[in-house]
Specification:
41% of the residues lie in helices and 20% in strands. By secondary structure, it is an alpha/beta fold. Helix 1 (23-33) packs across helix 7 and helix 5 (133-143) packs antiparallel against helix 6 (148-162).
Length: 191
């Protein structure tokens, strides 16, 4: 994890947790209900999936471009995953959202979320998880977007991340999507 400083006159909402917990589903509901929020589009070095659009789902960048942005201190935070890809929050994206008068919503891995929590005191952090580890594994396998090896790595990472939940402002157990979205909405409204 590396970066320095942060621009945040307005709080940022950080959603974190394990892969397969339903973070993206909760965020979609939240964004549809709360027009003052906007999802930050992260940069990633992983290949684009056929259903994804550059600049909408992620900014898909080469390793060289990612390195250049690192050298220019263009990331608020970034992570290198055990399976090789890198992803990060572009400072330019945060600035773009803030300049529109909106509140950025960041979907981050736990390391990035803890970094932002430390560097941006106004950040509100929400950790989302499935009700059980078995349900988490079922969801990961059902979405069929990763190879079996990558699923195994994500499950190992999830085991580690579950131990970090207590460090975040709020923990949401996503056993019912609408109820979980309602809880996150209430947290955001009370910020």
């Amino acid at each position: 994890m590396a970066s320095s400083g942060a621009k945040a006159a307005t709080p940022v909402i950080v959603v974190t947790g394990t892969s397969g917990a339903g973070k993206g589903s909760i965020e979609r509901i939240l964004l549809s209900r709360m027009p003052e929020l906007e999802l930050d589009v992260s940069a990633t070095t992983r290949p684009r999936r056929s259903s994804e659009v550059d600049g909408v789902h992620y900014w898909f960048v080469s390793d060289e471009e990612f390195d250049r942005k690192l050298e220019e201190k263009g990331f608020l935070e970034y992570i290198t995953f055990p399976w090789g890809q890198r992803s990060g929050t572009l400072r330019s994206e945060i600035d773009r959202i803030l300049d529109k008068g909106k509140i950025p919503v960041l979907d981050l891995e736990t390391d990035g979320a803890r970094y932002v929590q430390e560097k941006v005191p106004e950040a509100v952090t929400v950790f989302v998880t499935a009700p059980t580890f078995e349900e988490l594994e079922r969801r990961l396998r059902a979405r069929a977007t990763e190879s079996a090896g990558e699923i195994g790595e994500r499950l190992e990472l999830a085991r580690q991340q579950l131990h970090e939940a207590e460090y975040f402002d709020h923990v949401i157990i996503n056993d019912d999507l609408q109820r979980a979205a309602d809880q996150v909405q209430q947290i955001v409204q009370e910020r």
